[in-house]
């Protein structure tokens, strides 16, 4: 299958938003709970201070999806900093539409993001994966990822908007 992986451009953002919604459906997140939209993605990715890096997978028109889409996958990452390891990359989403899986597209997206991170001086990549998606965990392990929860007992914590609002209100900042 012919597939091009390239940097995301602002014109790709409606498709990125479509794919984000597909992921939300897979994880049973109500679409009305998504705060992200095309304009926010544009500002965050292409504004004065870009906050993320994104690569997309695109197939030629003759290989488009059942719904007629040619942009069929993406990887979206942010650069972070580790006090132990310095600059690193946090891969937030790596997604390929189900009908295009098993064709090495995810692997190419993954490796493209890693190569970009390496060129920018990163010493490690971090990514989370749902325990409800063992196929995703296997993919990451096959590509050299270590499950830190299993290996070292590290746990991922998230503070939701409600907690943020409450804590910010109590802050003396």
Automatic annotation (TrEMBL):
Keywords (A to Z) from UniProt: Acyltransferase, Transferase
Gene designation per UniProt: LOC107118074
Family: Belongs to the acetyltransferase family.
Gene3D superfamilies: 3.40.630.30
Domain N-acetyltransferase: 3-169
Pfam family, one: Acetyltransf_1
Residue ranges crossing the lipid bilayer per the database entry: none
PANTHER family xrefs: DIAMINE N-ACETYLTRANSFERASE, THIALYSINE N-EPSILON-ACETYLTRANSFERASE
UniProt protein name: Diamine acetyltransferase 2-like
Organism: Gekko japonicus (Schlegel's Japanese gecko)
